[in-house]
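Support reply, case 0932

Customer input (verbatim):
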Amino acid sequence: MIKKYARILLILLAITGIGFMSYLTYLHFAPDSSSFCDVGEKLSCSTVNTSQYSKVMGIPFSILGVLYFTGVLGMAIFQYNKKNLKYFLIATIVFLGPSFYLTGIELFVLDTICLFCEGSKLVMLAIVGVSWAAVGKKEFPMNVFVVALIGAILAGGFTFLMHANQGPGDKYIEFMECLDEKGFVMYGSETCQYCAKQRAVLGEEAFEEHIEEIECDPRNPGNVAELCIEKNIEATPTWIQEDEDGNELYRFPAGVQKLEKLSEVSGCELPEE
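Our regenerated output:
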């Protein structure tokens, strides 16, 4: 049954995947967007899609996803045959390596799930199942599957190494220590995509250690929403310089701040490039 309707199923799956990835690409680049799939602390497309893990070698995974699903769609419409199905089946298994690595990042690092990201992986698994049924065991024996699986593991490992070596690392630690000493605090939220961008610019791990961030979202644990209301925080992130008693000395407009502007106002020197 699946083999009979494989071509139609692949076209529908590819279109669905393009839809998921196109929306995530829009979300990644849109300056003032919010996602309807941000439904709580543990389910946030924005948090995942704007984190430092949403790209590899500077390219958003969502764009790579659009290219992949477009390739599947083009093959299913214009070049549908067992040979091409086999190639795309191998490629899909390999691409699932980095995809499942990112699922691990969501679960164990970001502690939140991107529904559209995981939806796209289910679509890829469906493409594997449909393609495998259409190609047949003779054309895709177990040894070919093992080779594809090894490729998936290597691709996932490569993605891990790329992430381990990207980002500013410890570059801005002294700069952030200076900001902290001068009383600069960021009012933000764990699930705010623009707060995630600000952390990523400075280095997420170093930021968490050296900058005080006030959680303003009442839905998130550890929040001090009353303080944020008292401070008239209308949007996050909002940087404020405060004295020892919490009195406001300077306030930046809400939004992601360029490091040059933070340096200019604070007097803290940025490291040399």
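We compared this against your earlier run and they match. Two observations from our side: Strands lie at 55-56, 59-60, 184-188, 213-215, 238-242, 248-251. The radius of gyration is 22 Å. Please reopen the case if you see a mismatch on your end.
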